[in-house]
Every structure is written in C-alpha cells, then in structure tokens.
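# step 3/5: fold
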Amino acid sequence: MNGSEIAIGDHIERAKSLEPNAVCFKRDRLLEAVILEDIVKDLYRMTPQIMSVQNNVWAGCWIFLQNADLGLVVDYAKKIGAQVGVSHTRLYAMLSALTAPSGHLVSIPFHQVNDFLDHNPVTLFASFGFNNEIIEKLILFGFRTIRHVTRLKLKHLSAQFGTEGTRLFYFLHPDKESPVPNYTWDVLESAYEFETPVSESIDILPVMSHLFSDLTNRLHDRMAMRLEIRLFCPPDTIPKGYSRILKKPTRDPETLNRIGEIFLAKLLNSKMNITSIWLILGGLVLKNPKQQNLFFKRPGLESLLKIMHERFPGQLMRATLTGVDSTFPDDEMHLVPTDADHPI
C-alpha cells in the first residue's frame, strides 16, 4: 500500500475504487506462516542467527539476521522482492528497510542516523501498527519527521496519546538489545543411509514410503503443509533438494508418498550416486483447529437458569396456572420450585 490512499481496515470495495488495477486476495494466515518458514529455510543457509517477528500490518513481517553475508542477502532479496535495511540497532534497520526499494538494501551507519531521522516522515510509523490518528496529530503539532518525535519525553507522549504514546516512546527508545538467537525449527525429519550408493528410483521408493510412514506416525494431532526432499550425493558436500508448499495440509502417508515420487523424478538423473535420503515435513498445523469466540456471547436461558440454581439452590420459582376461574388475577397462578435438572 506504499503511495496509496488505501488504509488498513478499509472495505474491499473502497480499495478497488482507489486502485482499480489492484488484484485482491483473501488473506490466508496459515499460508503466510508456511511461506515465512520457507523463506527462513533459505536464509538459514546464510546464518543460523534468525529472528522473525510478524506485526499483522501491511509490511507482513520482519526478519532479523546477524552475521550473514550481505551480498547473499541482497541477491535473495531481489529474488523475493524483499526490502533490506542495515544498521547498528534493529529499530534503525527496520526504518532503513522501509525506505529501500523492493529487492534493494539501504544502510545507515551510526554517524548518519540523525540525518536519516531528519529526512524521513512520521508516516512510517503506520508500518509498525500505530494508527492514523496519532500520526495526523503529530503532523498537526509540527512533528513531521521521526527526529522531531525522538526528542519528546515519555510524559509528553503519554499525556497526549495515552497508551499509544507510551508505546511509541519505548518503540523509539528500546532497551539494550540482546544478540539474535539461533533459529529453532518446528519440523519433523526422517533419514535413511543406503549400504551402497543408488541411482534408480526402484531402490529409493520403498525406502521413501517407509520414511513417510514414520513421519506421519510422529505427526500425532498435526498435519504438514510443506514437504522437502534432500539427496546426498558425494563428492558434492551440498545435498540436492526439492521443496514445495502443499495446496492444503495433510497427514496421509499415501498422499505424501505420491508427492514425494514427483519430487524424486525432478531430482534424479542416471549420473547420481545417492548415499542417503532425507525427508522433512514443515508448516505443521493442528489437525482440527477450532476458531475461538472473539467476543463475549450471552448464555442461553437454560444455561442462565442452571447458573442461578447453583448460586441460589431451592429458591428459584416458576409461575404455574391454577386452571380455575379466580376473582382476583393473583389467584390465577401459583409459584412452584423449579427442577434443577430441567429448569425450563
């Protein structure tokens, strides 16, 4: 949404009217998470020090790397259209990434930070989840650049913007950062080493079927949405691999085996001498995820009456018609105790 009037929360019809040529897709958070895992898998070859942070706004997510070859990072950014920022803190690295063109890198050395903050507007705060109201008020008060806002104290921002102002202050003045930790994978792996090197699918398929059975037994109540096959072929030190995100999650060994056969056919050639095979299942999700209620739901009448019985045992009464003509309206009915098991 860079350079567009479309705002987070806008109705799809408004978005289409503002950007007639835009193509709209229904958001799939599960697919996003699996794609992120696939990206991290590629970055892991550059450095194990990876930390991903999803922020639920248009920028998608941030991936922090440490001790990675910048040349390789930029090459990969060009491949996937990512924006890359480099600086001495994560905050300035994120801000510099926002100003980078797609597939390019912007670096902010320590001595150029103030100049950078002086030349970039507070509208960048929208990419970190700050609402338009706080941004518009900052501009109205004359705080047009990020540098202007960094000079404000906590009491000023809190008094003017409440909890959002407090969040903005600590966002701009974070605590001392710890090193980026090594990434922890949530995947299942199964491998087999052949007694003698093989090169034909007839030797590999039975082994692969056994490995898939092992993996699906270890899935328990989960399903996989990403499959990767690696073949180790000496003297090559890097395995030959093939990885894809599946159309939908599965835990069926036969389905995985059929997909694995397709992957294997793409990898195999007669000159290969395969010493071992490695299968990896990623994008692991619960088999039957249940949507939780986001809002309070009023209890039904029967549930409410049972709660009342528990709190006031024997005191809940029900009006019952007497069935006879009465002189006074009050005599047309009488009160009887309700049954706790059948209150209605």
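# step 4/5: annotate
DSSP finds twelve helices and eleven strands in the chain.
# step 5/5: archive (pending)
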